[in-house]
Amino acid sequence: MNILVLIGHQHEGSFCHAIAETAIEELKAAGHEVVYHDLYAENFDPILPHDEIPRNSSLDPVVAQHCREVTAADAYLVVHPNWWAMPPAILKGWIDRVWRQGVIYRFGPNGVESLVAGRKALVFTTSNTPRDDELRLFGDPLENLWKTCIFGFCGVTDFYRRNFESLIMSTPEQRREWLEEVRSTVRERFPA
């Protein structure tokens, strides 16, 4: 499989980076082709210019490359922290600029038509809020965002998300266990 791995975290030594590195190791060990983007390290510009909104507009070369990689991918693996019940702005900007009409979906006579149906999506997120508190106070906005509003809307229904929390209160042993869970989840979702 050709798998696009995307990370939205500004600190290279973060647990999100450890998740991404672990996932990539497993994907490569299973023989998958990996295209990897660290949006902060690449200094991806998240600002969607007005001129880029029309479907047939001329795209920035970096955005055009990302669009080609998204359409060529058999699956998507996204890693990011939970910031105010949302992904970081750089990742949201990537979605705005790359996950676009004419690339991912189009509007047809019966509504939205997917151009990426049948693909898989795996999202790993981290947060500091304990799970029970998050569910009680907010529900699970990231689950809805990724599963329904982004992937589901665009026809990617083979979806799984795992949130690791509370990161700030976790121990080194717990983080090692979580990385083993990342390994097993990646092997299960993307077998050799």
What does this structure look like?
- This protein has helices at 15-29, 61-72, 89-98, 131-138, 141-152, 172-189, and strands at residues 2-7, 33-38, 75-81, 105-108, 111-114, 120-126, 158-164.
- With 192 residues, the chain is of the alpha/beta class.
- The chain has a single domain, classed as 3-Layer(aba) Sandwich (Rossmann fold), CATH 3.40.50.360.
- The strands form two sheets. A five-stranded parallel sheet has the order 2-1-3-6-7, with helices on both faces. Strands 4-5 form a two-stranded antiparallel ribbon.
- Strand 1 (2-7), helix 1 and strand 2 (33-38) form a beta-alpha-beta unit.
- The protein is globular and about 50 Å long.
- Helix proportion range: 25-40%
The number of helices is 6
- SSE order, one letter for each helix or strand: EHEHEHEEEHHEH
Structural class: alpha/beta
Percent in strands: 15-25%
Using the CA coordinates, give the radius of gyration. Answer: 17 Å
Query: First CA to last CA: what distance?
Result: 9 Å
- Report on the biggest sheet: 5 strands, parallel
In spatial order, strands of the major sheet run: 2-1-3-6-7
Low-confidence stretches: none
CATH class membership: Alpha Beta
Number of strands: 7
Topology:
Elements: E1 2-7, H1 15-29, E2 33-38, H2 61-72, E3 75-81, H3 89-98, E4 105-108, E5 111-114, E6 120-126, H4 131-138, H5 141-152, E7 158-164, H6 172-189
Parallel strand pairs: 1-2, 1-3, 3-6, 6-7
Antiparallel strand pairs: 4-5
Helix pairs in contact: 1-6
What is the compact description of this entry?
The chain is of the alpha/beta class and 192 residues long.
